[in-house]
């Protein structure tokens, strides 16, 4: 467990960077949280009704949905009506000392308010303007709103996610939104680095559509290579095998055998050495082509094993394997605790910690998410 302690923590890598986070929902707020975890001073500015995700429950804590709490730590918060002249004036005041502004308004909204990139760049030439959008500003889908599940559908992700012979499925977490937030944060960091040379800010955009397409490896690479449309493969990898889920006597396990050496070690441990020398399976390409026969033989060999014990033994041998854990089991795993991947702030906040580990300037956890809304100034 990682418990916030300001007294003993060094400043984060982004200490001194000021961020105004105007974004709502997931991608933008996740970007802001990444920057805040690593020391940036982040002010989350919400509309009068609040970020929509405050109501995305249950569960709720003190009237605020856990969904919102999971994306907005290390931020102070305030309420502002940017559709009003008074709200716009306040925002301009906030931007006077800011390094970064993050927003995900529908394309044209900031421009309508006189707060678009060109407007702000003239007034604040060092400001980095980060926009998270659905499809970008132009092109056939330019300016349209984007949502994670719809973009998963449109970018081909759902077409390769699902059981063989079944229907395409949404990935069970908002992978497009989250990778868009990661790419937005990366773009901000690139722009901050370039500003050290030029002294100028720039426009950074991460769109859900682009980021969804970027996730298509190896399916896009395979299609570019052979022109064959990728299909549903269930848990199995399209290129290598055994890279799949398997039943055992107890819990199911996932084998992720990536080379011939690992396959040989697996067969030796299972006392099925003949499989490693079988010409159908001795090389990676053959195992992939003859995967159905190999699966049937491995299912038989694994049937008497305890899944958790087997996974541990194989990992120790250098064969990637893991029991398939539930979310609660994963969050309570001893290695999760050792890696300090669960963080507490005060009495009411528990969340998943930053996965980015820096030796001298690690992530710090200074503020629980802003649960109150106020037009009077920043609130925790």
Characterization of this structure:
This protein is an alpha/beta fold and 380 residues long. It has two domains: 220 residues, Crotonobetainyl-coa:carnitine coa-transferase, domain 1 (Rossmann fold, 3-Layer(aba) Sandwich); 71 residues, formyl-coa transferase, domain 3, CATH 3.30.1540.10. Helices cover 36% and strands 14% of the residues. The chain is built from 16 helices and 14 strands. The strands form four sheets. A six-stranded parallel beta sheet has the order 6-3-2-7-8-9, sandwiched between helices. The protein has a three-stranded mixed beta sheet with strand order 1-13-14, with no helix packed on it. It has a three-stranded antiparallel beta sheet with strand order 10-11-12, covered by helices on one side. Helix 1 packs across helix 7 and helix 7 packs across helix 8. The chain is elongated and about 75 Å long.
What would you say about this model in short?
With 380 residues, the protein is an alpha/beta fold. It is 36% helix and 14% strand.
